[in-house]
Amino acid sequence: MKTYSALGAAIALAAVPFLVGLNEYYLFLVTLILLYTTIVVAWQLIGGYGGQLDLGAGAYHGLGAVVTGFLMVNYGVSGWVGLLVSGAAAAGVAFLIGYPSFRLGLKEVWYALSSLALVLILQKIFLLWTDVAGPLERYIPYAEFDPVFMRAGTKIFYYYITAALLASTFLIVSRIRRSKTGLYLISIRENEEAAEMLGVDVRRYKLQALMIYSFIAAVTGGIYASMVGFYHPTLFDSWISIQTATLAIVGGLGHLLGPPIVSIILLTVQEYLRITLGAVIIGLHQVIFGIILVVIIMFKPDGLGPLIDSLARRFPASVRR
Amino acid sequence: MVVAVVVIAAVVGISVFTRVLPLSQPTPQVSEIRVGLVEPLSGTYAVFGNEARMAAELVIEEINSKGGIASLGGAKLKLFVEDSKSTADGARLAAEKLVNVDKVHVIIGAFISSHTLTMLDVTEPKKVVVMADALVDYLTARGFKYIVRLPPKASVHGATAVDFAVGVFQQNGMKIQRPVIVHFDGLFGEVTADGVYTRLRDLGIRPVDRIKYPTDITDMAPIIERIRQANPDVVFVVPYYADSVLFAKAVASLGLKVPLIVGAGGTGLADPDSIKASGEAAEYMINTYSYDPFLPTNYNKQLVQAFQNRYGKLPTEAAGIVFYTLWTLKEALEVSGKNYPDDPLSGDNLMKALMSLDITSGPAAETYPSGHIKLAPNGDNLYAQAVALQVQGGKPVLVYPFDKAQAKPVFPRP
Amino acid sequence: MGADFGVQLLQTILFGVMLGGVYALAAMGLALLFGVANLVNFAHGEYIMLAMYMAFVFSVTIFQDPVLTPLFNIPLFFAIGVITYLGIFKRLIKAPPLSQIAATVGVLVLLRNLALAIWAAEPKAPPYTVFATSFSIGPIIVPLDKLLAMAVSFVTLFLLNLFLERTRLGVAMRASADDVEAVSLMGVDTNRLFLLTTGISLALVGLSGSLIMTYQAVTPTSGLLFGLLTWAIVALAGLGTVKGILIASIIFGLADSLASGLWDPRGREIVLYGLFILILWVRPKGLFGRR
Amino acid sequence: MDALVLEGISKNFGALAALTNVNMRVQVGEVVGLIGPNGAGKTTLFNIVTGFTKPDRGRVKLFGEDVTGLQPHQIAARGVARTFQIVKPFFGMTVYETVLVGAYLREKDEDNARQRAEVAMKLTGVYHLRNRYARELNTPQLKLVELARSLATQPKLLMLDEIVAGLTPAEVDAMTALVKRIRDEMGVTVLLVEHVMRFVMNISDRVVVLNYGEVIAEGSPSEVSSNLKVIEAYLGGKSGS
């Protein structure tokens, strides 16, 4: 059963480019949607399971873009290497900020705020650090199709990289969810003191979750930089932080299927609204998007995860009958 | 595991598929020319983008109402506007849409130089001609094939600001001793300020300070304080819009006394929007522009009048560039229709047509400061010229070039 | 050179104190809501941004001067506070912190996008006015608009302090900050108390928005920046007293001004938010009491 | 051998002295009851032993090892498990998952951990609830689940903080039997804080009385209940509240 739904999801992912007629623009949009969805799925580790409302996604995403871009531009290093290096760099930053935070028991709103502050601090650091980034956009050399360097003129290249990243992120997260680590993280979310009394090293597991998530967020940033062909400190974008957290919450904290499904649907709706309404009244699509979010959060505080889970459970059953 | 296999299979399959299939496009029957316009309609630079959009709509209406492109059987121009959201990736996304969905033949944009560069990544491979309304020098110096730029480039603006200041000082029997350069830290700010610096250096003058500030600055007081510490006799400033308003207001409210303040780059200080937003603080502010709304030609007077009637404001930088860019496009289309009737709208033919132009009369020439448009091989206008406007009595007036000036510049600032 | 630097330093310190004076008002609104109703309003900065935009709107349509906009902004934002409380906050009061953050992040998204739709993300600043002038004391320049803003802020905080210490309602508010249950046992209608607290909190925001606009421009991202800044001040001050908020605000105002003036205007966020994170690490309870 | 030794423990909260120079010993295999009026410092003492609170002065020794200042999970790793006065359930987890968290402390392998969890659930009688979410359970059930997850960690010292508060007399009797089984069959040392005298006196080998942060009496249940000071403290505590 499970194999079939995985196969179905894989075929659907593989088929999308043909559904949009291989149109570069639509491919660009769906790639973006999958890229942001990947961050949402990874965020589950720290937010959904670990219960830390992290708003640092923009920092790690930006770090991925800047480090990968820097290596590609300045040293001609392949983007693939760049993704790994930037992921490691992001995990390192996550450690530096997470270790003292968790050790000193930063929680709830204070943790959320400190992670958001990280986005802005890093943005300004790289704005001042002109050897690496600075205020001027840096352009990654153009290549018609260079898979080794990880740069291509066609978006389909980036689409499949992103789809593979999303699929593997989903698998990693679902595997962690079923493992001891996942169980420990959820127990931390549910009650930190009780978890600790059962021998759960709360700091260590929070830190692990944060580092894995930041690694993946950085990879999305690296792919993004290569796809748009430049990097700049504005890619440390606090909006990505907020978008990630809201989509994950609306999708249902700690639910496996809810967040990616909700994220894909809502981001698609947002892009659709942007294309159709964006030119009529600028920004209207974002208001509608905002209203959708608030309404869901107000009336379904647990998000749509439970709903989606029960649908997912019902669906195969009805087929069997 | 399964997912990975399928995805990898798909990657291989599709990359082969796209490689093998020739993406042939049938030659279109020319009934319309699709013109894309990428501008910052929202966000930090929205003031410019919206002015450019107004100008584009006005001029395209006029071209169409006068019979469209004669050599293409009266084909009409159709405008496709996209918002860059004032970000580099937004401009890129906009270009993707125009090129891949709307299939435009030419793009005008993206006002902000760095945004224009990200657009070229999309347009160059698809051979879509970009007519840039962005000023940074190296847009046309990086070997891109399908770009032209009519307005004077950033370094020309910088040099013009210096020439003007030197002239004003000379008229009053003085010499510049202690100039200060102030600019935002983006691409355009850097390059324009470099233009100022280079021209000053050529004249043997050393600036006493060069102050950078972030594009999203919200409080100018610290900058003004640093200027005051430098005790300058002239301040060269390169702002965009919002920061120019903050700058003007901070100069007034903190009582900064400098004999001359000259903006370079036409994106603030002395245009109608800045004047409206800064109020009295805008008085005596000077800036260089790529367009002279007071150019005393018949067509220009008529166009400025039409613009003012419809939108209630004077067209300056953003609108002016679009004026002559669109009229130049029209001339090029006429040539292309005549010379390459088989495929008049292909990027290559359109570029050839643009390169063959030498315009000294007609609407394009009548709206261009020097009255002369002829492109160099890199796509820049050989006869590029910038002008300077000063706010006097709440209205911009032309003060440079001195021979065409409507009024003498007010100097020193009271 | 030394004398010049001395002047510059004095000038920068003066700017910093003035900034801090204005920040205090914005932070007080947050501290009040967080302290009394124990409500985490993650969208606090977005309300400040909205207040700044409204101050802009009022100053270009009705008044010519942002200095007069509090006349409209204070009642308007009190009303917005009441509406927000009844519509959203009321059901959040007893919710766990994570739900409060989630819901108010939703509000943040909505308000920010609303501002985007209405003002197209353009930076807006009110016109230059009579108050935007300055006088000098020796080599030091004193900007009148900022001085006025600081004075209004101080007077307001003084009155608020009186209200909290001398009136029955104010005492109930302070008591609620310590122990909600005790207050409801005292026979105070906590629902009404929280409604009023939200109203006052946002009225303070309305006023602070007007004052900030006397010297600043507003963009939709201003919300985020002021949001973090006010939270940082509350983190430093703890939820103790009006005095604590005032001192913490001035410390942040000084940090802001010194960073921009003596280092690099682009570095101010690094200093401010770096300081914030350090405070969270080093002083988890704030300088002046509990958090 | 001593399971737990407290040497001169003191803890102040601001001006309030929660514990003053507390000395105490729990021998392996003992059941020790800790009693005293509200505010006597019993829960603070528990928090100090389990590492949630750092003492101002004094040492905590577990099975001969000085563990003062260690973190709770390190204390847990050294064989201490604890239930809480106000239950701290994992609302979003099933009973099975909850107990499994505890089991993972000593069983790295998933299958072994599952077995261990099932044993703990069967012993405490919550096995039939294993697929229910904690938020669906009532307080007595939650207390049993808390006990189950503690036992799943295979503790050497079990600390129970008012485990029978709010239970019916029948449930108290059942709990008494359960704790005795835990001690006898699993050889677990038990330290419990309790107000329900019937429970304490029935089950404890030894009773320690705390009042205002000081140990005021110590001895067998019968010795202590006849000790006048205890009665005073209780009477004083009761009339005061």
UniProtKB/TrEMBL annotation, chain A:
Transmembrane stretches, start-end: 25-46, 83-102, 109-129, 156-173, 210-232, 244-269, 276-299
Subcellular localization, as worded in the UniProt entry: Cell membrane
Name used for this protein in its record: Branched-chain amino acid ABC transporter permease
A GO molecular-function annotation: branched-chain amino acid transmembrane transporter activity
This protein's record includes keyword Cell membrane: yes
Record's signal peptide: none
GO annotations of cellular component type: plasma membrane
Alphabetical keyword list: Cell membrane, Membrane, Transmembrane, Transmembrane helix
Pfam family, one: BPD_transp_2
Topological category with respect to the lipid bilayer: Multi-pass membrane protein
InterPro entries listed in its UniProt record: ABC_transp_permease, LivM-like
Chief place where the protein resides: membrane
Automatic annotation (TrEMBL), chain C:
Chief localisation class: membrane
A Gene Ontology biological process term: amino acid transport
Transmembrane segment boundaries: 12-40, 47-64, 70-89, 101-120, 140-164, 193-215
Keywords: Amino-acid transport, Cell membrane, Membrane, Transmembrane, Transmembrane helix, Transport
GO cellular component: plasma membrane
Entry-linked Pfam families: BPD_transp_2 (PF02653)
GO molecular function: transmembrane transporter activity
Subcellular location(s) of the protein: Cell membrane
Superkingdom to which the source organism belongs: Archaea
Membrane topology: Multi-pass membrane protein
Family assignment from sequence similarity: Belongs to the binding-protein-dependent transport system permease family. LivHM subfamily.
Official protein name in the record: Branched-chain amino acid ABC transporter permease
